[in-house]
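Quick illustration, no need to memorize.
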Amino acid sequence: MMDDIENAFVGIDLILETTSGSKPLNLTMWKPIFTEDTFEVCAGSEAERYLWTLSCWGKLAPGTYKFALETEPEDEDSGEQARVTLEFGEYLQQPFKLSEGLLTVDEVQHSDDGLYVLGNFEFSVEDERTDIEKVGCWEFTIGDRA
C-alpha cells in the first residue's frame, strides 16, 4: 500500500499568495513525508481535499507563525505583522476537522526580482474516512535564491 501512496503523491505544486504581488507564486515542496499518519500536501491528488492554498498577508520574516483555519484575514492591512491562513479544497463541505497549524519560515529574501522563502508547515486532521492524522511539509521553497 505504501508504494501506491508514494506513486500517488508525486508532482507538488501549490500556490502562495501575498498582498505584495498581483500574481500567485509557485510553491514547490521537497522531501516528501510518507508514514502511516502523515503525508505531504500535494495539489492534484487526494491531499487537495485538505489544503488548496497557503496565503500570507503582511511582510514575512524568519520565525514561526500560527495559521488560522479561515480563508480571509480579518484585516488585510497588517503592516509588518504577517498573517498566514489556509484555504481548504473541501473545508466545511466534508465531515472532517482541522486544527490550527504552524508555518515555520527559515529564510526570506526580498529583491527587485521577487521573493524567496524557505520553510515548512503542518496541521492536524481528524477524518473518520482515513487514518491520516497530520498534513505537513518538511521543506518548501518559493522563488529563486538570489
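The beta strands are 14-18, 25-30, 38-40, 53-57, 63-68, 83-87, 96-98, 101-111, 114-127, 134-142.
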